[in-house]
Amino acid sequence: MNVNSAPKGWPEGKALAVSVNVMCEAWTDDAAPGIGPMGNPLKAGFLDTQARSWGEYGMTHGAPRLLDIVGDLGVRCGAYASGIIAEKWPELLKRIDGDGHFVGAHAWMQNTLPVYQERAEEEADLKKGIKLFEDVIGKAPKGFSSPRGTFSPNTCELLVENGFTWHIDHFNTDLPYRLDTAAGPLAAVPFTMEINDLPIYMRYGNAPQVYSETLKRIVDKYDTIGRPPAVIDITAHAHVFGRPFGAIEYKAAIEAVKDIDWVWMTTHEELAAAVYAE
Asked: From CA 233, how far away is CA 149, in angstroms rounded?
């Protein structure tokens, strides 16, 4: 493992590798997002119907809006989807795939984290999601993201055993690297939080424009730290920045970098391929 140097598949002359992502998240019928716009949490044991309705917006309106934006800008993105979406909103997955983007797995549902599961339960959910993706879009996902970015001690090995080639639950590096598991290699692709609507807007309460302004500042000042090779993600959750106020900033962030000659507009899929190019 070398987390400090760019893989051989990294193109010359490119400092920042910018990946554009849409997170498509869903919950089981008896659950709701743990983070919502209301400040007063419900009593324990009661379904937060407001948060649930707010979360469903991502599948009905948010994701299509974000896909329209990347399509208009001519940028390829990646979409990570909860497996349960293949049951409830299969047409969305078909749209993502039909538009030329990849569909990555985002666990079975957002209210069950792999870190809480026994190995057999985690693998069963993984296989269930793979089968549904194959039924809907005719192909199995190759990339994986855990809810909360929190994987279990078994996740990486299970991913390799079930045909995955990359994993984005890795925050210990600026660059993708090869991770060796007992089952074989896996590309560990960093998933950066700097341009991500959940921490910037939902957790810390910044104004929406901080999202795009942060990326513009990174680009404007990057030469002051020597332009080291690194990955930067532009990530929107469909139920959060898929709304008009966020979609405006999502578009502005992409526009700020997409035509810079030393920026590599890429995807996690291509970053994983760069690792295997070694």
From this structure: 14
Residues 163-199 as b/e (b if ≥16 CB within 10 A, e otherwise) read ebbbbbbbeebbbbbebebeeeebbbbbbbeebbbbe
Domain borders along the chain are 16-276
What CA–CA distances, in Å, run from 232 to 162, 173, 189, 272? 28, 11, 11, 14
Q: Phi/psi of residue 214, each to 5°?
A: -65, -45
**Which phi and psi (to 5°) does residue 166 adopt?**
-145, 165
pLDDT of amino acid 3: 56
DSSP letters for 143-166: EE--GGG---TTHHHHHHHTT--E
Say which residues have a Cβ less than 8 Å from residue 256's Cβ, sequence separation at least 6: 212, 215, 216, 219
What is the pLDDT, as a whole number, of residue 50? 92
Bridge partners for 166 per DSSP: 143, 187
Specify the CATH number of the domain 16-276.
Answer: 3.20.20.370
Beta bridge partners of 19: 233, 266
> pTM, whole model, 2 decimals?
0.94
CB-based contact 7:277 (threshold 8 Å)? yes
